[in-house]
């Protein structure tokens, strides 16, 4: 089968950083689905895993953790899917990725694809939808509507990226929160407003001061999707007493958690691979939430965050997608379709 892989961890400008390869077609075992891949999306995790380092792989390593396709075959323990089903999922970072013609994935972390979407539109959603959903409802413990008035407020730092684009929609249209999102350029600010943000400010300026200009002295929740080190102090300043901060971006410096004590602030990390990495007892919740995302899409409550499509799926286009992400200015999701 065709695949895009690496054996060395190189700068994306190097043509050997991602290469076209031919691999054996895998066979499903246990609860695995064998999926014929129709479209994939690229995320910052792909670029972080691929980032230059001295390691050399003995055999080609396939990356990619966002896919949509058709079930080709199922393992003997599969109960929720059958050949021919259209599916979408983010996969498991401890297993080979989805940048290949065929891919094995545990059925418990797979959703039935939204009926109203194309494969490329669906492939834009899984990793970011899982991350945004878990951040809001599992980590920050945002309650479901109906809410008592006045509505609670969330500040989403990095609202125009992949996760931000779905988090804004879930926060505004599903959780019923008042959403303040950050965006740094006119085109990204426009994108975030179209997705449902009630207010847009810049994360390159004084975030607290900009909120005060809007009439907000604090937010009940802060979701950090961009540079935790840079925004942690502002998040602590902005979050309300007994409020919560969630971040999806690993820190490189030391975070002053002592600053959380006076206001009894909760700080929590979100990593969407946790359930699959550790096979947690609730691992099937990822499949369940993807099915709920599909329902929300088909009900036209939320929309895909696809913004750019490259074709075909090959090393040259994946290198282009990685380079675009590494520039740090991508809006929404970049998707590749068809081998």
UniProtKB/TrEMBL annotation:
One of its GO terms (molecular function) is oxidoreductase activity. It comes from the Bacteria. Residues 13-336 form the Enoyl reductase (ER) domain. InterPro entries: ADH-like_C (IPR013149), ADH-like_N (IPR013154), ADH_Zn_typ-1 (IPR014182), ER (IPR020843), GroES-like_sf (IPR011032), NAD(P)-bd_dom_sf (IPR036291), Zinc-ADH_QOR/CCCR (IPR051603). The keyword Oxidoreductase applies. SMART domains: PKS_ER. Keywords: Metal-binding, NADP, Oxidoreductase, Zinc. Coiled coil: none annotated. Belongs to the zinc-containing alcohol dehydrogenase family. Quinone oxidoreductase subfamily. PANTHER family: QUINONE OXIDOREDUCTASE. This is Zinc-type alcohol dehydrogenase-like protein.
